Each structure stands twice: as structure tokens, then as C-alpha cells.
């Protein structure tokens, strides 16, 4: 009901704690991003979230430029070096890039390579496996704006379109939330 956040597929929003919960796994809430026309909107897919590598010639107004200036990530994400040496994007702001070059953790957590998870004191969350994007294709929204492939265009209360980071998602009638395909919205 905060009109701002969403969670990956299979997670439940806990607005009071500011988290997404699936069993014992807890993630920070994701912030919805409005679709832009132009530049194209970038949002993050559900877990595991592929990295979106951008070339320097397609610079977004709201972006994080990676070291070396040859690649960039969407605003609110973190540049992390991949095993290949190239940069990719971790879907967390100020994320911790794991030394294996494959994973990342939310800010404040540490990578536990042996256990394959992120730790912060007694809290443990599943880490995100980074996958270098191949070709980035887009879903065109009804108003001509676009969202990344694997996401769904949902109309916002303003009449513009936003990107739900879930494929073939159900757009809730409140024009703020979305649910995984096959689920019913309950925004009460």
C-alpha cells in the first residue's frame, strides 16, 4: 500500500519491515521504476536477477557509470566486475560484490562463498547470481514506453506505465502493485 515498492516472484511484501519475505529468505523491498520514453526504462527481473550490461553509447539520464566509463547500470543498482572482467549490474544499491565474480549481496551483508548466501549477523538471505545479459530486448507498453524483456507493463495511477519486474504479471487494480502470473492481487 506504499505505492512505491514491489518484491520478486514468490516473495511476499512486508511493508512494516521494509522487506520481501519467502520462507526464511528476506530481501529489501525493490523500488518501482516508472517507464520512460525516451530513454528506455530499466528495472530488475525476479530472482535470480540477470545483470544488464550497457554500452557507453546508450547512456541513460539516470544511470550509474561503471569504472572505466565503458558500461553503465540503471540508477539504484551497483556495478560489479564479472569473472570475464566486464561489468554487470547487481540489483541492489550500494551492493556488496562477491569475490567469486558471480554473485552479489545487499548493502550491509557479507558474501559467504562457502555457504552460497549473504550474511548480516544472524540474518541470512539468498545471494543473487549475476548473469551477463546477452541481447536486451524490450516489452513495448500501450503508451509507447517500454520495459525490459521479462517484465510486464502496468498502468500507474497517473495514466503512465510502469514496469513490474515479473514476466506476464498480474497488474493490480490499485495501479501500484503487481503479482506473479497466476496469483490474485490482495492489496488490503
What does the model show?
- With 188 residues, the protein is mostly beta strands.
- The protein has a domain of 68 residues: Laminin, CATH 2.10.25.
- Helix content is 0%, strand content 37%.
- The protein is built from no helices and 23 strands.
- It has a three-stranded antiparallel beta sheet, with no helix packed on it.
- Strand 8 and strand 9 form a beta hairpin.
- It starts with a strand and ends in a 9-residue tail after the last strand.
- It is found in: Secreted.
- InterPro entries: Granulin, Granulin_fam, Granulin_sf.
- Belongs to the granulin family.
- Its main location: secreted.
- Keywords: Disulfide bond, Secreted.
Keywords, separated by commas or semicolons:
Granulin-like protein; Granulin; Granulin_sf; disulfide bond; 3-stranded antiparallel β-sheet; 188 residues; secreted; Laminin; mainly beta
Summarize the structure.
The protein is mainly beta and 188 residues long. The protein is built from no helices and 23 strands.
Helix-strand layout with pairing:
Blueprint: E1 5-6, E2 12-14, E3 19-22, E4 25-28, E5 30-31, E6 33-34, E7 54-55, E8 63-65, E9 71-74, E10 78-81, E11 87-90, E12 96-97, E13 103-105, E14 110-112, E15 117-120, E16 123-126, E17 128-129, E18 138-140, E19 146-148, E20 152-155, E21 161-164, E22 170-171, E23 178-179
Antiparallel strand pairs: 1-5, 2-3, 3-4, 6-21, 7-9, 8-9, 10-11, 12-13, 13-17, 14-15, 15-16, 18-19, 20-21, 22-23
Organism: Pseudosuccinea columella
Main location: secreted
Protein name: Granulin-like protein
